[in-house]
Amino acid sequence: MKAMLIQEYGANAKFEVAEIAKPEVKDGHVLVKIEASSVNTVDTMIRTMGAELPLSPATPALLGMDFAGTVEEVGEGVDDFAVGDEVYGCAGGLADLPGTLAEYIVADCDLVALKPKNLLMREAAALPLVAITAYEGLQRAGIAEGQKVLVHGGSGGVGHVAIQLAKYWGAEVYSTGGGEKQLELIRELGASAIHYKSESVEEYVEKHTGGAGFDVVFDSVGGGNLLNSFDAAALNGQVATTVSMCELDLTTAHFKGLSLHVVFMLIPMLHDHKRAEHGRILKDLARIIEEGGVRVVLDENYYSLEQVDAAHARLASGKGMGKVVVDL
User: Which PANTHER family match (predicted)?
Assistant: First the structure.
């Protein structure tokens, strides 16, 4: 089968076209003909950082985590899928799990679900990593009807799903953005937009919560921005983040009695830990999407498998809006 491989990691790493063996189905897995994949920040990190990240595959590396496609073969012990099923999932591209920048993948059936019927393959392929992340973060933060929720980075991959899920679960949602295009998308998704470059945390907390703070802060920016999340959170509030590889002063979190939830959705793949939970989340997300609760925002550009270098560059540029997808 055709695949795009990385022979050597680094800032100038390039994908190369290769012919590799088509994988064989095994017990508890499904063989999927991939029709689309998508690019996530972690993919670009692996490509450039290599061995600096403990989750990077050995080279030559077959990257790519998200996919949507059609089941071609079912392994022993698989009861929930049949040949011809259209599925989506996040099941490879790290450690010893071959990725999705290829024509086929053998995926653990616990990491897969039936694709939402109302989505195109390329739309479904954009979702698994970011949607599972948003779902897990909000659920762990105890999302509930009537809460005031702040989403940092609401025009990004994770953020645009977090806005919609928070609204679906009955919250009053606010979100930060740094430019008019981002703010416009945030408004389209149903959240009150906050221009973080022109409004201070203190100003927007006062404006939107009367100074009390937000019940839940979902921070898809993370790092140093977590200090803004602590400042924006209510007393005994909940903060969920996707980026916490940093050193921070937790004084504000202490005196507010905040709970911090770190979401690292790759754990089930890396450690074979509670993988079925990802399948369950994807199944529930499909139901929510089919009800109209979440729509997918895709970047305007189209990329073929051979153009994956350009797809990575698009995501890294920060100029894209929504998820960058690679069509097979």
Answer: QUINONE OXIDOREDUCTASE
Long-range (24+ apart) CB contacts under 8 A made by 15-22 are 15/101, 15/308, 15/309, 15/312, 17/306, 18/60, 20/62, 20/102, 22/103, 22/104
Spatial neighbors of 1 by CB under 8 A, at least 6 apart, are 19, 20, 21, 22, 102, 103, 104
Range 93-114 burial, b when 16+ CB lie within 10 A, else e: bbeebbbbbbbbbbbbbbbbbb
CA distance 162 to 175: 10
Strands 148-152 and 172-177: parallel
The rounded distance, in Å, linking the Cα atoms of 57 and 76 is 27
Domains and CATH numbers, the chain: 2-127+270-327 (3.90.180.10), 130-262 (3.40.50.720)
Nearest to 264 by CA among 90, 121, 65, 129: 129
DSSP-derived secondary structure letter, 22: P
- pTM, full prediction: 0.97
Q: Are 171 and 149 in contact (CB under 8 A)?
A: yes
Sort strands 66-74 and 86-90 into parallel, antiparallel or unpaired: antiparallel
Q: Mean pLDDT of residues grouped by 10 in the chain (328 residues)?
A: 97 96 98 98 96 95 98 97 98 97 98 98 98 98 98 95 98 96 96 97 98 98 96 98 95 98 97 98 98 96 97 90 94
